[in-house]
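Hey, I was hoping to borrow your eyes for a little while. I've dropped the whole record in just underneath, so have a look:

——
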Amino acid sequence: MVNVEDNSHRHPDKDSDNSSLLGKDDSTHLFSSPEKLKQLTTSMIGQANNKVRILSHHLNREIFDDEPIREAISKLARAHSRSTVELLIVDEHPLVVSTQRLLEVVRRLPSSIHLKVINKAYPYDESAMVLVDRCGVIFQKENSVYEGFATFNSPGRNKQLSEVFEQLWSHTSNSQELRQLRL
């Protein structure tokens, strides 16, 4: 069950963007627009120290081609040798035809950013998620609907969804289309 966000514990002088501290903010942030999803994603990825995992049907361009999100991913990937970004998609075709700028970041940082395609024969429920370090979670039940929740401090939920992500990651296939892009 998703709880409605309670802002009563927040300091009145703090901007709402600053209260979403990774590993500290236990509240659940609901979203129902691409703008709010971008804001939460930028904030969470921007605070990552070690690992970001993204499961998206095709790395929706409206969200993941946003400059602040690309910059946050690039910054993490360059931060230190243990930083990793794992991008897991279902359909690579929209990436290939739209030439997203995020793919340039993936090309430039291949040792830190990994892009894989889920094997089409493996069952996938159309959800989307962003998992940050061991505590941050952004979850959409349906990839194409901009509704879901984010929590900046939920190690249990992060662990549960990380297991799902790892299961999907282990069932990936090589993509001829991505190979042609040198990814």
User: Anything to note?
Assistant: The two ends are 38 Å apart (CA to CA). The chain has one domain: 28-180. Residues 1-18 have pLDDT under 50 and may be disordered.
